[in-house]
Amino acid sequence: MNAVETTTAYEHWLRTQLGAVLDDDLARKHERMAESASHFLRATYYLWLSRVGQEAPPELANAPELLAVGDLHVENFGCWRDVEGRLAWGVNDFDETATLPYTFDLLRLCTSALVAVREQHLPLHEHNVCGIVLDGYRESLEYGGEPFVAAERHAWLAALQAARAADADAFWAQLNALPEPAQALPAEAQSLLERLAPGSGWRPTLRRRTAGLGSLGHRRVVAVGVWQGGLAARELKELAPPASNWVLRRDERPVRPQAGPSWAPDPLVAVAGSWQCRRRAPDCVRLELADYARGGERHLLRAMGFETANVHQRSSAGAVAQVRAHAAQLDLESVQAAVEKLAATVEHDWRDWRDRRDR
Q: Where in the chain are the domains?
């Protein structure tokens, strides 16, 4: 099936999995998918998953399996505060977590980086992308992983911390300007919000938020209000089963880890039923490539590879030895060739989507 047919079929399935689908947000998603190949890739994980198993060579498609992120890309990383109040950084979104070959996460991360390089969002040479990611991934496996927190070993996060603090006023103004939702929260979501409230006396206003790409169309509500002299916010999002259930004809029960490595999780992330609640603040957000300081792109991409292995080690400790042995034998040229082929497929599907919409 082409991109339009696959999207139509997936969205039909999605309507059977969610309590409600926001058609205006879904229409916005379709528009953004036409803007660039990188936006298209982020918005169409279901299409990616249907392609990667067919196009990756056997040594990559049949790699050891573990609990993978699934929808991994260069803008699925963010920052938050851990239980010690330190700024932590890592994978931001686990909506599509499922049992898959570990290489699928590496291939998707590398493909998104390659597309970003070609669109001039990431100033690196495209032939260096896979090697940088793979080096970071192998290093994490070798040393047993390590969280990214703003401390002595990860001083580069200090610049990120300063940038987020400078954006605080704009962040809160943007949340307070959002419209109120058309419907009340379901009881399940309301109970989760009360559980993660900052404390008694918090009387937030509910706001409807449109954000992301892959989850556009899902209900998303932000609760924002004053608590003990300052603003506090929580975001609620309705979750669907992973797209792998649809693509691979599975009935796998979703596993929703907390945000970030197990060494430094955000204590204010929780899932109940089909709803997720998490803290929102200027330093508890998903990051885009433009949010990082310029000049450190190589280090950043290596950190993304390292963090991918952090997540894999946390989620699937029993598979680490097998994955480490397999990753040590990966041929960089084979990975590079697979990523170039996958990037070409993404770009072809994006142009096809754009052209069909124009007609």
A: 3-358
DSSP string, 157-174: HHHHHHHHHHTHHHHHHH
What would the two tokens of residue 108 be? 């998707």
Token representation of residue 125:
């040479």
Residue type, 311: V
pTM, to two decimals: 0.94
- Cβ atoms within 10 Å of 31's Cβ, excluding its own: 11
Mapping DSSP to helix (H, G, I), strand (E, B) and coil, where does residue 113 land? helix
Structural tokens at position 208: 């409807």
User: What is the token pair recorded at 115?
Assistant: 């597309």
Q: Residue 260 — very low, low, confident or very high, per pLDDT cuts 50/70/90?
A: very low
Instruction: Give the residue among 153, 96, 93 at the shortest CA–CA distance from 285.
Output: 93
Contact indicator for 174, 200 with CB cutoff of 8 Å:
no
The mean pLDDT value for 144-171 works out to 85
> 340 Cβ partners below 8 Å, 6+ apart?
114
* Single-letter residue type at 246: W
Sheet architecture: strand order including 269-272 = 205-208, 220-227, 230-238, 275-280, 269-272
Q: Which two tokens stand for residue 295?
A: 């000049």
pLDDT exceeds 70 at position 324? yes
Distance CA 36, CA 152 (A): 38
Contacts of 140 (CB under 8 A, 6+ apart): 146, 305, 306, 307, 308, 309, 310, 313
Alpha carbons 15 and 218: distance in angstroms, whole number: 10
222: β partners: 207, 235
Q: Which residues touch 206 (CB under 8 Å, ≥6 apart)? A: 180, 181, 185, 221, 222, 223
- By C-alpha distance, which of 193, 202, 275 is closest to 232? 202
CB atoms within 10 A of CB 160: 21
Q: Is the pLDDT of residue 110 over 60?
A: yes
